[in-house]
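Entry:
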Amino acid sequence: MALVLMAAGLEAVEPLLMKYIVDRLGSGKAFAALATGVGGLLALGLSREAINGVSNWFSWKVRLAVNYSLLDTTIGRLQTLPLSYHRNQSVGAIMTKLDRGVNGFVGALAELAFNTFPALFYLVLSAIIMLKLDWRLSLIVLGFAPLPALIGMWAAREQTEREKTLMDKWADVFSRLNEVLSGIIAVKSFTAEDAEKSRFLSGVNSANGLVIKGVGTDTRIAAAKNLVTVIARAASIAAGGYLAVKGHITVGTLIAFLGYLGGVFGPVQGLTGVYQTVRKASVSMSLIYSILDEEDVIIDAGDATSIKSAMGEISFEEVRFSFHHAKPVLENVSIRIEPGEFVALVGPSGAGKTTIINLLQRFYDPTSGRITLDGHDLKNITQRSIRDNIGVVFQDATLFNDTVKNNIAYARPDAPFEDIEEAARAAGAHDFITKLPGGYDFTVGERGGRLSAGERQRIGIARALLKNPPVLVLDEATSALDAENESKVQAALATLLKRRTCGNGRGARTTIAIAHRLSTVTGADRILVLKDGGIIENGNHRQLMAKDGYYASLVRNQAGGLIGKE
């Protein structure tokens, strides 16, 4: 800031040097004055360029630091926001908000700090010098000076509304594009490529139409402001020429005024542009704060404790849960799971199975009742330590566009390669990994698209093995696999269930499995059958089949009538 203000001050001296040269051209010391003036102009120019160069370097350091700080804050906030926020916002919309919001804000800040304040400083210096040179010409110049600003203020409201509308349109366009690219298999399967392309380009054309309309408006506004400058210059030359002819001012004074005229209207034009930029940046700021101000309904208590290694005792006590006061998903559910026990959750879609898992990881809090881990209410444990003690194998393992090695080590980035390889062997993944180009350094592609479903799943199991969690959640871990891959993954899961280094008295992990394919949970210690938000049956496979209730009917339905009552 000091450097840019210094550069602005040096620029304000330049018209005075021009006045000095012109006023002495007719005197006896014209050549000395010319040499002095030209030397001064050169020194002034060199100094200003040196200062501008250094200040530009510093200003970019500031811009990048502010950009980094904003990204640090917003990305950090996005990572801590509850699951409900991310389920209500599309990825494309969030990315658009982040990109345009941060860049718009940083651009406005840089404009204010490195253009507006120096322009104001130059404007004040110029006004003072012009008043000292001749108050009559000063009044003419300064009388025209506010007009560009007034024109800019008049146009700002429409420009702000246009910017907000444009931002919303782009968010919608790229939100849909993100969905299309993420679900490209469905798009191709239904031969909807042309329809999606047309939809995208239609959105782009609509947004571009707003841009073109805005360019027309902005061009007319810019022309009006430039016309004011032209009229002011003509009026100044006419009045200054008249005063010079009459001998009231020198020609050098008129030259200096013309120099300040450009200098004054340049900053004024810049100031009006900045006013518009700030108004537009308010839209960018609102996008940033739509993330930062989002309510975080899941927060750690001030005295929350951390559990380093849980025993794995889990209890749901009269738990009730609903989304936004809708019909309850869970109604007075009570479950007690002993350390090392293998419990399966079965039932129709919407029965509340996944909700139980989400509540256990504290992605949501129960509407009433409480959930405990080793006797501690989850609300009194830090969220990080809860999730550190839980490993999840999803229906389709979430892999990142990174190497096999880094995907396995995702939960333990500092794990030695020997541990990574051991986990892969235990998951039945080592053999196919070594056959990949590059082996463990093979890049799996976005969402693991370069691997089969079975291979992705075994890498997901290897990741859980490497994490070595006391509590394991299997979220329909084999339902998307064919019979051959399922048998391989089931063998890996059997290893995962037994393999535990932190003792709980049974040498096994506490395991909760969600399953639609009932053949995968017949070996569970207990099976909880959920329906309409409650537990309607509880027992092992043999006991539930003997009851010949809802679970038994599910088994018969899946068997396709190939078996009778057991």
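The chain is about 60% helix and 10% strand.
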